[in-house]
Amino acid sequence: MEKRFLTPGETVQAIVDNARRLSTQSLSRTVVLSLLAGFYIGFGAQLATVVTQDTAPIVGVGISRLLGGSVFSIGLMLVVVCGAELFTGNSLLAKAALHGQISWWQLSANWAVVILGNLAGSLFFAWLMFRSNLWQSGHLADHAIAIARDKTTLPFDVALVRGILCNWLVCLAVFMATAARDISGKVLACYIPIMTFVASGFEHSVANMYFIPTGLLLAKRLGISDPGLTWRSFFIDNLLPVTLGNILGGVVFVSFAYWYIHLRGQRPAAA
């Protein structure tokens, strides 16, 4: 009978083996998979915006965040089950670099391609949602703009710490989804940590590649001028510290921690 899940040690090895495969795949494949991840996270982000636009006055802020996090998790479910390259999840590739299975240059090259692909996919998805005119219903436009403004006005250190906490959970979600051997297990593994980070208010770089451009597009259409909500504030005030925090959270607290526990001192397997 096939095991229903992998042990932590087996999961670490599975991630390392997967990283070795990813390091040799074609550039075009990596680009397409990273574009798909941008779309998939966008689906979750837009659904969270729709669900939370008017729930807080009715059920309270906490339950509203819980609902938003619950539906946002569809993004990582699509990434994991359907297959895509997500920058934040690829922080786990650092395990393979630490273990000598791929070079740090290969890791950096993968991250660079994937984050640019995620950005392109997220921007295109934000444009599609903008062109759909669905934002004209209810309080959706105002809510989307408020989400974007709240993110671009965070102090650098706050955005950094929220990024660390976010990707700690995202990488644990990917870790658990790798351990699961069936679809239901993978879905549950994605749901709990992702719901937790969204409900807690942590910051995810790829999600923000949808949230903030959407707010910028809507603010321009509605003639709203806000010095705290600009393309510069998107890239410099939010995306930069959040991305750095995501890297630290995923690499230090998940990749390094579990490499240290399960692989340190072992000889790398032959490629």
Low-pLDDT runs of 5+ residues are none
| Rg (CA only) | 19 Å
Structural class: mainly alpha
Strand content: under 5%
Note the overall shape: globular
CATH topology assignment: Glycerol uptake facilitator protein
CATH superfamily descriptor = Glycerol uptake facilitator protein
- Main β-sheet description: none
- SS field, number of helical segments: 12
CATH top-level class:
Mainly Alpha
**Average pLDDT, to the nearest integer?**
95
Subcellular location: Membrane
Membrane topology: Multi-pass membrane protein
Family: Belongs to the FNT transporter (TC 1.A.16) family.
Protein name: Formate/nitrite transporter
Structural summary, described in words:
The chain has a single domain (8-262), classed as Glycerol uptake facilitator protein (Up-down Bundle), CATH 1.20.1080. It has twelve helices and no strands. It has helices spanning 8-22, 27-52, 56-59, 61-72, 74-83, 94-98, 104-132, 140-152, 156-179, 183-200, 205-221, 231-262. The longest helix has 32 residues, at 231-262.
